[in-house]
Design goal:
The chain has about 600 residues and is of the alpha+beta class. The protein has helices at about 55-60, 60-70, 90-95, 130-145, 155-170, 200-205, 265-275, 290-295, 305-310, 355-365, 375-390, 405-430, 490-505, 525-530, 535-540, 555-570; strands at about 50, 75-80, 105-110, 125-130, 175-180, 225-230, 235-240, 245-255, 255-260, 315-320, 325, 330-335, 340-350, 435-440, 455-460, 485-490. Helix 11 (about 375-390) packs across helix 12 (about 405-430), helix 12 packs across helix 13 (about 490-505) and helix 14 (about 525-530) crosses helix 16.
């Protein structure tokens, strides 16, 4: 019997392959902005922490994650090794439990882009559909054609080969089954992992997850998706939608290499990409927001040594079957597969996510990106649940307001309510605006695409698309020539009462909204509260309905607020409930949420 063939890192084997063999670009050794001549930098990337929960800890997923979060979040990503295994493998579930399962793949170029006006990268659909075993056979053939073996290579060896290929590749491509709707967790009642709370089909809607309040299915956000890859299939640098957490389970097959940048370094990461990866000519505008918009396409892949060179913290993980990878809010991440494998992922949130969600909501509005989840609704609903539960446990020694999750919900809620009370007070002084009760479903602002949950402006005559209160439009009229009307929630008094209760407990000290400050004549206090509120700051740079780029001055807004406070001399704002027919029942075009997770171009 002949000796088995061994592949050594750095050597290129001959033979045909669907992956381009390493070849120097254009036949020269021209330097590029990605210095990959020495791949020893791969050894300088530190590993993220790995956790081994006991079966008891495993029974309470979000409690365990909140326990490790203070340490693990510093790395952006972490690995969790499951103490229990699935009884039914992914192949069995997808072929036996899910009949006629097929999926389409993305076609991914195996090269690094210059990211200038002449060269960018897109991932296009291949147009081919595979069964699970058909794609497995293709992936195994591709692996053997390159390495002349069926496996057994070290992760460091594959990592170096991947980046060498990305640097010198020309026309090679790989296929990746990405964002495939479905789950490979078994429905068998005897499958321990399938019936556990770590089954990703139920993970986003666990009791402690705010996403349980989303009343519809959103693939990838509330419902998991499958990711079926082959050698060098990659997921480009990106951050999760709305800065949510994500959890990825490796069902079977070859390992994956992950790279993660902690959330605290996200801004530094975006600046580095803007300055050292993208060419300014491909960005319509400059700044971190434009880098964020481009990265959101999920096609930007570059070596992590760019981060090392510019002092951006980056960490690494090698994920194997039976292991979970957690990405934390606003943590950029990327990676690639070492061969055929099947993974599954879904988003989730914990109470400490709300401040990140607020930041994402503001950024989406600035960029006019369509939201996937109604952040404002989730915040208000969760805050009301906290308010009702805290009212029942006032006599307890362990006060809920002393906990970090409580503060993470209450502070953004108080800021939001401060903004609405200030805006509604200003609008009330206009003789041309009327207020009506709102019992309709979710609506989207036609200017910035923000969800309008608490209040919005709408023409009661033509019922055009609603406009949120983050725009200075009171002096303006609708396109039909009539003035806008204000629609507010029927339960706004309950929201106000909750805000007053939270403020009385002084959860957020001087940084948060005081209801009485809206009706105070103390100018310095008013300026302090309004300028310290991120929602109010955002309004100062938002455009108008007729002039989207126009900006209003914060000092003028403060002066208007003080003037109205003196004129009203009232303790709280109460709008008359002049009920009109439901907005939702009228014949007008509706803007609804994009309920599918954003895919690559």
């Amino acid at each position: 019997m002949g000796a088995p063939k061994v592949f050594r890192c750095g050597r290129t084997m001959t033979g045909k392959s669907s992956i381009t063999q390493p070849a120097t670009r254009h036949g020269t050794n021209k330097p590029t902005k990605y210095d990959l001549a020495d791949l020893e930098w791969t050894k300088r990337i530190p590993e993220c922490p790995t956790y081994y929960p006991s079966e008891h800890e495993f029974d309470h997923p979000l409690v365990f994650l909140q326990k490790i979060a203070p340490e693990a979040s510093k790395y952006g990503i972490c690995k969790i090794v499951s103490p229990i295994a699935a009884s039914n493998p992914a192949a069995f579930v997808l072929m036996k439990e899910k009949k006629d399962f097929k999926f389409e793949t993305n076609l991914q170029p195996l090269r690094l882009s210059k990211w200038n006006e002449k060269e960018t990268i897109t991932f296009s659909m291949s147009g081919r559909k595979y069964t699970y075993h058909e794609f497995e056979a293709l992936a195994n053939k591709t692996f053997f054609s390159r390495f002349h073996c069926s496996g057994g290579l070290s992760s460091s060896c594959v990592e170096k080969e991947f980046w060498h290929e990305m640097m010198h590749g020309e026309k090679g491509t790989v296929e990746y089954g990405v964002n495939v709707e479905g789950s490979a967790f078994s429905c068998d009642p005897d499958d321990k992992l399938g019936i556990s709370k770590w089954n990703l089909k139920n993970f986003s809607r666990l009791l402690q997850s705010p996403l349980r309040l989303v009343d519809r299915e959103i693939p990838g956000i509330t419902d998991p998706m499958l990711y079926i890859g082959m050698l060098f299939s990659m997921f480009a640098w990106h951050v999760e939608d709305h800065y949510l957490y994500s959890i990825n389970y490796h069902h079977s097959g070859a390992s994956k290499t992950w790279y993660g940048v902690p959330g605290y370094a996200a801004s530094h990461f975006e600046k580095t990409v803007l300055q050292h990866v993208y060419c300014n000519k491909i960005l319509p505008k400059h700044g971190e927001d434009e880098a964020f918009r481009f990265l959101a396409q999920k096609t930007t892949m570059f070596p992590p040594n760019v981060m090392l060179q510019h002092d951006v913290d980056v960490y690494k993980a090698v994920q194997k079957p039976g292991e979970f990878i957690i990405t934390f809010p606003r943590a950029y991440h990327a990676g690639f597969s070492h061969g055929f494998n099947c993974g599954e992922a879904v988003n989730f949130a914990t109470d400490d996510w709300f401040p990140f969600g607020a930041a994402a909501s503001r950024r989406y509005a600035v960029l006019r990106m369509m939201p996937l989840i109604p952040y404002e609704e989730l915040l208000c609903k969760e805050a009301m649940l906290v308010y009702k539960s805290s009212s029942r446990v006032r006599s307890s020694k362990n006060k809920p307001e002393d906990t970090a999750p409580y503060k993470a919900i209450v502070q953004p809620f108080l800021h939001l309510m401060q903004f609405y009370m200030t805006s509604l007070l200003r609008l009330k002084s206009s003789r041309n605006l009327q207020s009506y009760s709102n019992t309709s479903g979710l609506l989207i602002c036609r200017i910035c695409h923000r969800d309008c949950y608490v209040a919005y402006l709408l023409c009661k005559y033509c019922f055009s698309h609603p406009i949120c209160l983050f725009h200075e439009i009171a002096p303006h009229t609708c396109i039909c020539g009539r003035f806008y009307s204000v629609y507010i929630r029927n339960d706004i008094l309950e929201l106000e009462e909750a805000a007053k209760s939270f403020q009385q407990k002084k959860v957020c000290c001087t940084e948060t909204f005081s209801v009485s400050s809206l009706f105070s004549c103390n100018r310095n206090e008013c300026i302090k509260h309004l300028e310290g509120n991120p929602w109010q700051q955002e309004n100062s740079v938002r455009g108008t309905a007729n002039s989207q780029g126009a900006a209003s001055k914060p000092k003028t807004q403060v002066a208007d607020c003080i003037k109205q406070c003196v004129e009203n001399k009232t303790r709280m704002l109460h709008w008359r409930n002049n009920v009109l027919p439901s907005v939702k029942s009228t014949n007008r075009p509706e803007i609804i949420y994009n309920l599918r997770k954003r895919k690559s171009n």
